[in-house]
Amino acid sequence: MSNAAKSSTNAWLSLLLAGGFEIGYALAVGGSEGFTVLTWSLVAVVFFLLTLYALSLALRTIDVSIGYAVWAGIGAVGAAVLGPLFFDETLTPAKGIWLTVIIVGVVWLKLADRTKPEAVAGTQESGQLADRPSPAQV
Amino acid sequence: MHWLYLAIAVAFEILVAIAAGKAEGFKNRKWTGITLASGAAATFFLSKALLTFDVGVGYALWTSVAGVGITVLGALFFGQRLNVNKAIGILLVIGGVVGLQLSGSA
Questions:
Q1: Parent domain of B15
Q2: How far is CA A58 from CA A7, A25, A79, A107, B83, in A?
C-alpha cells in the first residue's frame, strides 16, 4: 500500500473509531442520570475526549463534511439501536422510522456543506463555524 | 421540562460550533476555553434531557437540531450560503422531529 493509501485507511479507521466513541459518549451521558452516577459520568468524559481526538485525527485527511456526516450518522444510529440494550427503552417501528428521517436529514445536511467550493475554502481558512471542537475543523 | 433542557443543550452545542470556529485550531486560548465550557454545558443539559428522552431519541434530536441551527445561523450571520441540498436536510430534520412528536415517540 502506498503512503497515501495507508494514511487514508488510517484516517477512515480513526473516523469509524470516533463514531464508536460517540456512541459510547451518548450512552454514557444517558446512563449518568443527569451526572448523578459517578461511573457513567466519568465514562462520558473519557468518551468525549476520545471521540474528539479520533475525529480530529480523521479530519486531517478526510473532507470535513464527509467526516462529520459519517461520524454523526454512526453516533445517532448507534445510540438509537444500542439504547434499548443498555436501558429500559424500546425502539418501536414509529420511533425507528422518524429517527431514520432525522438521521438521514442531519447526514444530508453535513454532506451538503461540500457542494460550495468557495465557501468551504473560506470557512476552513478563516474559521467561523465548526461543529465540534476539533483542531482540523473550520 | 425535558424539551427545555434539550433546547438549552442545543443552544450550547451551537455555541460550541461557533467558538470552535474562532479557536483557530485551539491556538486561541479564550475561544478554546469557551468551546470546552460550552461542550461541558451542552453535555450536562443533554444528560438532564435524557432523564426523560430515550437516549437514541434525545441524542438524535440534539445533534440534528443543533446541525440545523448551525446551518441557519451560518447563513444569517456568517455569510454561508443556503442551497437546495441544505434546505432538503433542514426539512428532513424538521419533518422527522414533528413526526416523532406527533407519533408520541419523543
A1: 2-102
A2: 10, 18, 21, 17, 27
